[in-house]
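User: I'm curious whether this sequence folds into something compact or stays loose and floppy. Could you predict its structure so I can see for myself?
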Amino acid sequence: MIDGHGDDAYKLGHTITSNFSSNVYPSVDLSGLKAHLCAQMDGISSYPEPEPYTLEAGLAERHGVSSQQVCVTNGATEAIYLIAQAFRRSQTAILMPTFSEYADACRMHGHQISSLYSLQEPLDEKIEMLWVCNPNNPTGEVHCKEMLEVYIQQHPRVCFVIDQSYEYFTTKPLFSVFEAAQFPNVLLLHSLTKRYAIPGLRLGYITADESLLAHLRTHRMPWSVNQMAIEAGLYLLRHDVLTGISMDDYLKETARLRDALQASGCIEVWPTDTHYMLACLRFGKASALKAYLVREHGLLIRDASNFEGLDDRFFRVATQTKQENDKLIKAIMQWMSE
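Assistant: Here's the prediction. I'll summarize afterward.
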């Protein structure tokens, strides 16, 4: 889906002063990374490694697995499409509501898709692949690690794709790379884009059992990860990148924002285990609220009406600073009063 994502300020024609629509963490000090990439600019004159072997080896060492259990991709989105291609024409279930690219990638590669709305539902015996976003986008829900483990063991013939792109933004227990790699039927997705707020560089990776990744690698195209992205990944492995707030404090501010929106009486906010949340207007359309906030206040939210299972009342916001969050709350109250 080319259109319909968050962070679409480029097509709105207004200056955005606070962006609540993107789930990228806003307070990361990238000055050292930028200086390093400037110093590496001569690298654009040469081809990168056909596959990012060096970065895969570095990530493998960091996680305590072999380099054959790590596959670096051009963002988590390339990982999604690569998996859909490698297992094309599968009978596939997707836990909804969730990120639309899973379904888009699977449709492109001939999968027969069905929707699942709870891991308590029985899984059809024909299902060969199940996609789970954890923490989930757009709800922020984290599925219980122990329950997922039991579910995986109960369905050994199903390939589980578990997208942990937002794993750094929750305190709930999730699979480690080492733990997930012990399953022969689990592909775990990770996003350096989200972790370090570098969406323009496009950098993600898959970790899994060696045999699963060997099958994936037969379908990947060479040079999908560019030289500057590889350099960025290597730098980030070697250096601490400072963030402006602790995760505990960030999640406390998320809870405060959620409570304030809920207290309006006009918005229902779903529980969340991470830094973003799904909200539903009791009256009016999310698209109208979004247009008002952009036009009158320079604030951008994510219209979530295009997620399967949701309607035109839903929107998503990602927590910003306390001052920005207060501006959002005040602006939404003004819209409601008008």
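Summary: The radius of gyration is 20 Å. The chain is about 35% helix and 15% strand.
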